[in-house]
Structures are given as C-alpha cells and as structure tokens.
Design brief:
This protein has six helices and eleven strands. By secondary structure, it is of the alpha/beta class. The strands form two sheets. Strands 6-7-5-4-8-9-11-10 form an eight-stranded mixed β-sheet, with helices on both faces. The chain is globular.
C-alpha cells in the first residue's frame, strides 16, 4: 500500500492489487462530504441509518459520524468490507475531524471487531462478500456504494447486489456512488431505483438512485 495526498490535503492509499486509489485525487474528504453524506441527505436526517459497501479507510463513516455528532443525533452504520485493512494502515489516514476523534481512537484500538457502540451510536461491520452478506430489509435511510470501480471489481455493481441493496433501503431512501458507468446505471434502474445524474467533482457526473419500486426476483 502506498500513501497518497489528495488535492484537498487529505491522504488516501493506493491499492496495488486493484491498481486504484481508495479515493479520487480531488480529495478523500471532499468526496465523502459532497457525494455520500450530502447527496443521500444523511447530513439532514434526524435518525440516519447508513449501509456502506466498501468501508475501505472508513473516511465516509468518519465524515458521517462527525455530522451526526455536530447535530446531536445518533448514527447507526452497517458496513460490508471484504478486505479489511490493518489498524496501522488506517491510522495513517489523518483527517481534521475533531468531534469524532475519541470514537475513531476507540475503533482503532479494537479493530477489526464486528461491532462498536457508544452514546454516539453504533458501527457494525460484516467482513465478507456483499453478494452473501446478511442485509436487513427496509432498514437503511442511505446506501453508500463505494467499492473499487466496476472495471476492476464488478461484483458489487451487479444487478443481484443492487437488488439486495434496494431491499435493504427504506422507501425513498437514497443510494449514492461515484460511478457513472452505463451498464451499472441500467442495472440500478432494473433493481428498482429512480436514477438521478448529479454533477460530480473531478468528473462530469456522479449517480444517485432513489428507492422506488420493489424489484422482482
């Protein structure tokens, strides 16, 4: 793993196996806030329940936690991660998120446990493949779809997985992702999402899907 500095001054890691970084060069913190937190409206939700696919460096979790702590709401967060990183690697990703610093230190001390909880809320992690991971039905207010790209890691972007994610979302819940790939967007529609194209940062578009009809099959 090689440490990289993104343009917003926050670090990420380059994964040699996938040939991709965990975050875009425009900024790890920027993407977490502008795409995942805000495009799912999680920064406004009074009782956020987030399901993340591809926990990675936990940047999206930490940004969401910071928002919840600032607003005084409890966060419930469920993540699926197939390849957890070591606490030593995670500790290298320093972020200016003061409100959640104590929680982050606690998580690093206990990583990789499957559950962390406190007055702030709960983080549960399923270490395994999202195609087989147990997902609660109708539970999530938001889905953060953030694995490596469809080109190098196609499974999490497939129709069967998207149907599972739709089933885990409450009606009207939002899925956000950085990918604008055509085949993925078609599958997202077929899985029961209303598709929205939103302006991206560092790329022309991001993708938001709103849980609409329940998919068949």
């Amino acid at each position: 793993m090689r440490l990289l500095l993104t343009q917003d001054g926050t670090p990420t890691l380059f994964h040699p196996g996938y040939g991709e970084a965990y975050h875009p060069r425009q900024g790890a913190l920027l993407q977490a806030r502008r795409l995942y937190l805000e495009k799912t409206l999680t920064h406004l939700h009074p009782a956020p329940r987030v399901l993340e696919v591809g926990l990675g460096l936990l940047v999206n979790f930490r940004v969401t936690l910071e928002s919840a702590l600032r607003r005084g709401v409890r966060l419930r967060y469920l993540a699926v991660e197939r390849e957890p990183l070591s606490p030593e690697l995670l500790a290298q990703v320093s972020l200016p998120l003061a409100q959640g610093a104590a929680v982050w230190a606690e998580i690093l001390r206990g990583w990789p446990r499957e559950r962390f909880a406190g007055p702030w809320g709960e983080l549960r992690v399923v270490f395994g493949d999202v195609r087989e991971a147990p997902l609660p039905r109708g539970w999530a207010t938001a889905v953060y779809l953030d694995p490596f790209s469809p080109r190098v890691n196609p499974e999490p972007w497939s129709l069967p997985v998207l149907k599972r994610l739709r089933g885990a979302l409450r009606p009207g819940g939002r899925l956000a992702t950085y990918s604008a790939q055509g085949a993925f967007r078609l599958a997202l529609k077929e899985a029961g999402f209303a598709l929205h194209r939103v302006p991206g940062v560092g790329k022309r578009e991001w993708t938001v899907g709103i849980a609409a009809k329940v998919p068949r099959g």
